[in-house]
MerR family transcriptional regulator
Amino acid sequence: MLKIRDFARLAEVSMTTLRYYDEIGLLKPIQVDPETGYRFYSMDQLPSLHRILAFRELGLGLTQIVEILDDGMSPEAVHGMLWLRQAQLQQHIQAEQEQLVRIEARLRSLEQGTCLPAYEVVLKAVKPITGVSLHLTTTDVASQAHWIGAIESMLQRSGVKPIDHLLVLHAGREDEHTPGSVEIVAPVDARDATTLITQSEGRLTRCELPACPHMASTFHHGHPSLAPLAYHALGTWMENNAYTIVGSRRKLRLRRGENLDDALTEIQFPVEKLA
């Protein structure tokens, strides 16, 4: 038998970790001195500890590891748990990459000595829009770009020419616990809409956006990650002119090539005058 101090040194973990693993039933000592409370371990327990540490390095929680080591979980369930952890890491990496893109765009703007863009907000009427749409239960920018590209490819393959620019419709959240969602809308005529819905096997649905008599609009020329500047301009205009938002935000992709610094986006909010 080994004292907890010696076992901790051999396993390259702290005694605090071993005591905690004992408390939660993850790794019990083979013997505890009833008088002193000292814990003793066996080298036969080292493989079990290494297994625990390996699962911790994969990002699994201690409760999950307890379930795995207690043989209360099937291999399929372990596979599913690891698959979920993989998806969480991929999502985290993607979020970090998007943040890096925003930082790079801001650095380029500073290095080039670019002044903050001036936004002119106008109030205009918007006609009704008919077409097809794809509903996404995510506000992830990369996911939106992927599906916009997929819809544009489908339009080209089908020989369908949209009657206006593709737009992204952002639904407002009820509260912070409600997941965000967007709708990608391709304005097309009724006959083409039927064709596209059939070809998409129902993933695309028919869409009708009503006319809006008062739409606050501005253009953002530059990298999409700098669009919050446009929202600031819109918000300031609404505040100064006593308007309130009465519907979902719209983003029209007027120009989007490989050079995102040259992208052109129209941002719209349906509004009405405050009483």
